[in-house]
Fold tRNA N6-adenosine threonylcarbamoyltransferase.
Amino acid sequence: MTLVLGIETSCDETAAAVVEDGRLIRSNVVFTQEELHRRFGGVVPELASREHVLGILPAVERALQTADARWEDVDAVAVSYGPGLAGSLVVGVNAAKAMALARGVPLVGINHLEGHVYANWLVKPDHWRPLTPGGERRTPAAPMFPLLCLIVSGGHSELVLMKHHGTYEHLGRTRDDAAGEAFDKVARILGLGYPGGPAVQRAVERLRDPKGNIPIPSHLELTRPWLRGTHDFSFSGLKTAMLRLVEGGGTSPVGNPSPLSRVVAAPGSPATTDPSRETCQLAAAFQEAAVDVLAGKTVQAAEQLRVKQILLAGGVAANKRLREVVLARSKAPVLIPDVDLCTDNAAMVAAAGYFRLQSGHVSGLDLDVKPNLRLA
Ligand code: KG4
Ligand code: ZN
């Protein structure tokens, strides 16, 4: 049995986790800084790093305790070293280095995006199969290669083909805003508060009828940015279209005069606790267009490449509508982590660390943070 301690501090979650054999979550501790950043309407890097400094050791201690593990049981330390905020990454990387050095165990630097992908390998304790008569614990089947992974987070939107562990062939990426960034900006435009993705989803869910449909008036239908002939995405046009609709007087991208006139919410303005039906419809118009493109392009690429499975990863994969549309349209089996494993956590880092270790990958103590690291 191999226990990997995972550490994640790339943005605004201070997280530590213990994962057994790359799959079984023994503990998964996440200290979120949501409240701290809420009044600024976004993450304030300086505040985030200070909070990581305060939280990292308690998070690790709690992760070990919950896992019922001692320091001697830890076989390796895996840590996100990029992409992310430099001042935030530095806290996790330095803590991980100190722990690996003190315990004499390997240090494994992990690309945060690779971590998101490996959330799909994780199994929660309540999903462990019972012990077989021979004493062997059975875990659910792992993802199967070749697979297509849609990684959609606050900073990235990428479509990658994975033929083996740790190899990523880039098919497409966003040409402007990341999917999560677009959700966050639209939430801000609509005065729905921070963090934006869940706020947009909540507003849209208010419209859902008993049959599960989300009615959107035809004048709010947004033109989809298909970028045909490529696997790339673009979301800034949708955001601008929303802005025009909200500001009123402009025209929607389908050419109809906007019937709505509204003041754009200032950054950090309090969340609308009870958004109007119109606001919910605007949120739905955006979400439906974004989800249509994300799901449509993913399913199309999966069919072209004849992959065995589709994986979703990253914070936006927590989106209820994206999950249901991809599941409904794909002929290939779709794997999606539980919602709490889509957003930033350290169990995904530990899982990725285990598979990196298996392929002989170990980092030196000179590991540095790479805020702009790409998935290679
Ligand atoms: O992966 P993540 O936790 O952090 C990054 O690596 O960026 O992703 C955060 C992003 C944010 O933009 C957030 O608004 C979005 O994921 N997000 C969602 C949902 N939950 C989180 N977007 C849409 N629907 C959600 N339910
Ligand atoms: Zn992330």
The pocket of KG4 (ligand 1) is lined by residues 11, 116, 153-155, 180, 183-184, 195-198, 201, 314-316, 318-319, 343-344 (CB under 6 Å). The mean pLDDT is 92.
